[in-house]
Amino acid sequence: MADRPRLLLISDRGFASKEFENDLALRGITLLRPSFKRERKRKGEGLLKSMRQLIESVNDTLKGQLDLERHGGRTFEGVAVRVAQRVLAMAAAICRNHKTGAPITRSLVAFDH
Questions:
Q1: Is residue 21 within 8 Å of 29, Cβ to Cβ?
Q2: Which end of the chain is more exposed for a tag (fewer CB within 10 A), N or C?
């Protein structure tokens, strides 16, 4: 963590304890999580909903369109290469779709032959 100053950890309500937050603070980590009803609103809490939607969207894209759960890799390196290939293919498709004015930019349907 020394190599990553001002690290931000995003979590759900399950990671809530003074001891845990104090330990993170000692390590220079900021915890961003939703507040409980009994708590006052936490700093940055308004960002969580849009951040969660973004994470879910990326997760859905990686699992659904890129089929990353069936990558076929047998070693760490094999998995990493296959994941990188698919992510780069998706990035190229998004870029192309954006430049050509396609109505849906995050789609590989036009390339699925």
A1: no
A2: C
